[in-house]
Amino acid sequence: MEPDGIDARVRQGLPCYVHNPNKLPAETALARVPHGPQLVREAVEDWAYFAPLLARLFPDLAGSAGRIDSPLLNPGPDFGSRFGGCHSVYIKADHLLPVTGTIKARGGVYEVLTHARRLAIDAQLLSPKGSSLALLEREVRDFFATHCVVTGSTGNLGYSVGLIATSLGFRSEVHMSADAKLWKIERLRRLGVKVHTHEGDFSSAVAVAREVASRSPDSYFVDDEDSVSLFKGYAAAAHDLRAQLHAAGIEVSEANPLAVYLPCGVGGAPGGVTFGLKSIWGDNVHCVLVEPVASPAALVQSLVGLGRRVSAYDFGLDNRTIADGLAVPSASLFAIKYISVLASGFATVDDEQLLSWVNDLWRMERLRLEPSAAAGFAALEMMCGLAEKPDWSGAATHVVWTTGGSQLPEEEFTALLR
Ligand SMILES: *Cc1c(COP(=O)(O)O)cnc(C)c1O
C-alpha cells in the first residue's frame, strides 16, 4: 500500500478489486451526503409526470406507457457457473433501454425534461400542475427553439441530451472528446445537433462546453461533472430494480444481500444508482464501481478524499481505453461525495477482459454490448476468483448492470467481435 492509499496494482494499470476503506454504515452515510432519499422519491414522481409526454414523443415507449426502463434478465445456471462461488447472477439490461440504448437515457433525458418544464413554467406557458403534454404545443416549441441545450460528452450523454432536446424543439450543441466514436458524432449531426470535436480528453471537452454555455444567456449546460439533476434521473432506476427483484421472488435481506456491479465514468450514473439502491436496502446492498485500468477516476478520488482534486494521470495512468463511455480521467466531485461513503469497493478491468466479455455475452446470451457495458462481468469474475473475497459476496444475489450497446451499428459490433 502506498502513502496516499492507492494500491500498487492500480498504479501499474493491473486489473484488481479494491475494498473501499471510507465506506460508512448506510444510515450514517445517507445522513451525511448532500441530499436525502427524498431526492429519489422526487425523481420517481417526475418520471411519472413526464411519461405521457415521452410516450407521445417516442414510439418505442408506447408499450410501456412512457416509462424508460430495461428488463432484468436471468441468464440461467450455466451462465452463473462462470463465476465460481457466485451462483445467482442477474443482468440489469440498461443496454436495452428504450429511446437511446444506454443508461444516459435515465440521466440526460431526465435533466433536459426538468429544464424544459422549469423554463415553460417560468415563461407562463405551462401551469405547475398542468399536463406534461402541454410541452408539445406549438407556442412552447417555438419558445424552446430560441434556447439551446449544451453538453460535453464522450458520446452517449451527448446523444441522450441531443435527442430529447431536439425532440422538444430546442437547439442543441455537443462538445466531444478525441476518443468519441465517429458513428456517435454522425448520429448526432443527423439529429441536427451542432457537434464540436476537441483534441483533448473528456474533461477538457466539458470545460469548453461549460465556457461556451456560460457566454450565452439562452443556453443551458448539462454538466456531467456536477449535476444534481442527472444524478436524480439515474437514482430512480433503483425503484425499477426493486419491483423486478420482487417479481422474481428475490427478497433482499441481511442473509441474502444484493451485490451490484456498475460501470463507472465520472460517477454520475453509478453514483446515482448506488444512492437509490442504498436508500432502499441500506447495508444489505453492496455496490461495486467498475472502471478501466487506465481511467480509475472514481477510485483514486474516493480513496484520496474530497480535500484534494486528483485524476488518473496523477498516478501515471493514461486514460486510454476502448471503453469510450468510461474514458474519463477525473470524476464528478458531486458524485464522489456519495460514492466515497456508500460504495463497498472498486474494480479495475483491462480492455482485453472487456473485449472477451463482449464476445462471450454475444455468443452465450445474444447481448449486444459496447465494451464499457461489459465491465461489470469482468469485475464479478475477478472478485469471485479472489482468495479473500468480501464477506458479503458468497450469499449475495449478484446484479451486473449493462449500460449500453443495443444501438451499436452492425459494422461497429462485428469489428468488436473480431
Ligand atoms: C456514461 C456511461 C457510463 C458511466 O456513467 P458515468 O456517469 O460517466 O459514471 C457507463 N456505461 C456507459 C455505456 C456510459 O455511456
Can you describe what's shown?
There is one protein chain. With 418 residues, this protein is of the alpha/beta class. A 7-stranded mixed beta sheet has the order 1-10-9-8-11-3-2, sandwiched between helices. The radius of gyration is 20 Å and the shape is globular. The two termini are 38 Å apart. The site of pyridoxal-5'-phosphate has 19 residues, from α12.
Task: Provide tags for this entry.
single chain, 418 residues, alpha/beta, 4-stranded parallel sheet, 17 helices, 43% helix, globular, binds pyridoxal-5'-phosphate
Give the biggest beta sheet: 7 strands, mixed
Percent helix: 40-55%
Determine the strand fraction and express it as a percent band.
5-15%
Radius of gyration: 20 Å
Number of strands: 11
Distance between the termini: 38 Å
**Average predicted local confidence, pLDDT:** 94
Q: What is the helix/strand order? A: HEHHEHEHHEHEHEHEHHEHEHHEHHEH
Which small molecules are bound? Answer: pyridoxal-5'-phosphate
Q: Residue ranges: pLDDT <50 for 5 or more in a row?
A: none
Largest sheet: spatial strand order: 1-10-9-8-11-3-2
Supply the number of helical segments: 17
What gross morphology would you assign?
globular
Structural class: alpha/beta
